[in-house]
Amino acid sequence: MTFLAWIYHEQTEGPIFYYADTEYGIRFLLKDDRFIARLCSSNLTLMEGLASDILEAKTWHFVGASYNFFSGELILWINGSFHKKRDVPWPDELATQQSVILGAVPGVAGEYKGRISCVQLYDRVLSESEIEDAKQLCLITGKTFLLLFCSILAL
Predict the structure, then answer these.
(1) Which CATH architecture has domain 2-152?
(2) What percent of the chain is modeled with pLDDT above 90?
(3) Which helix or strand (DSSP H or E) is residue 10 part of?
(4) Taking the chain, what is the end-to-end CA distance rounded to the nearest angstrom?
(5) What pTM was computed for the model?
(6) Is the pLDDT of residue 47 over 50?
(7) How far apart are the C-alpha atoms of 45 and 63, rounded to whole Å?
(8) Which residues pair with 48 in a beta bridge?
(9) Helix, strand or coil for residue 129?
C-alpha cells in the first residue's frame, strides 16, 4: 500500500488521513511538526510506526508512506524522495476495511489545521520514480501553485 498527499500545515500536530472507525486504525498524522505513519493490522492490532524529521510549517510538502505486507518494510517519502524506512517485525494485512477520514479522528477532539491536496492511495508499494511521477500529477508545469485534485484508487 502507498499513501501520498500534499500537505500545508499551520500547526504542529493533527490528523491527516485515517482508516479508522474507532481509536484503532491506520493513521497518517503530524505530531511535533513530523509526518508520522502508524499502522494497524486488519484484526485491529497496533503495529510499528515511523516518524519523519521536522517539516517546516506553512510550506507545501509532498508526504507519503508505503508498506509492503510481504516484507514488512515501512517507508516514508518526503517531497518525492525516500526519507526513512523500518522493518515491521510481524508483517500483517492492514486495516483497510475501516472508513476513510481526512483531517479528523472519530471521537477525539482536535483536527488538522492547514490544507490537504491530491490524496492518492495505491494498492502496492511504488518505486521512487513512481513516487516522483505521482508528485507531478497535481503540479502545473512551470507554475508554483497546485491544482485541487484528488485521486483515490480503490484498494
Answers:
(1) Sandwich (2.60)
(2) 48
(3) none
(4) 8
(5) 0.83
(6) yes
(7) 25
(8) none
(9) helix
Among residues 44, 13, 38, 35, which one has the least CA distance to residue 26?
A: 38
Cβ 50 vs Cβ 86: under 8 Å: yes
pLDDT band at 144 (very low <50, low <70, confident <90, very high): very low
Place of cell 509492503: 68
Beta bridge partners of 100: 19
Q: Which amino acid is located at 65 in the chain?
A: A
Q: What is the DSSP string of 62-108?
A: EEEEEE-TTT-EEEEEETTEEEEEEE-SS---B-TTSPEEESEETTE
Closest among 88, 108, 150 to 21, alpha carbons compared: 108
- Sorted by sequence, the CB contacts under 8 Å of residue 48 that are 6+ apart come out as 39, 74, 86, 88, 89
User: Could you state, in order of their start, the residue ranges of all structural domains in the chain?
Assistant: 2-152
Q: How far apart are CA 83 and CA 37, in angstroms?
A: 12
